[in-house]
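Sequence, structure tokens quoted for completeness.
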Amino acid sequence: MAGLSAKRSSERRSEHLLNDLLDTQGWDRRRPPLGDVLFQQEYRSYPELALLLGTSSKSGKGHGIPEALLVDRSSRAPLAVIEAKARVSDVGLALDEAAMYAQAFVDAGYQPLAIGLAGTDGNFELRVSKWSGGDWVPVTYDGSPIGWIPNRTDIGRIAASSQASEL
């Protein structure tokens, strides 16, 4: 039982780290229309998002609950899907799960990024991918994968090109 408690604490700390990273990049953590972020089950209050995630999950079936969605505050279009894990070693899993959730939006014609965050404020890793039309590819800067949550301007730049994933 003590191990389970420690794991929950770490996952909660990952969520706090996510809040800090969002704040650093200028994302307003309030819900739309005032802000840009929906956490966990908050998306269910937005029928257009709930409908798309209703068939998405970590296993590819059922109801999906990503850690957070970055959305356009006026249109509520999904801009990024974020999944967080407690252990740094699970960053690949976090990114894969974010991509599975994001695929439901891609299939509906949106272009959200998939963001995987793993670890806590002392030791973490973050990966960002974009749908290239056939696969999820890393978002890069000077040819190297980025390790930060893109700001609104960067997401707009990446989304403007259906192929490019370089900032």
Remarks:
- The longest helix spans residues 2-24.
- The helical segments are 2-24, 47-53, 91-107, 152-160.
- DSSP finds four helices and eight strands in the chain.
- The CA atoms of residues 20 and 138 lie 22 Å apart.
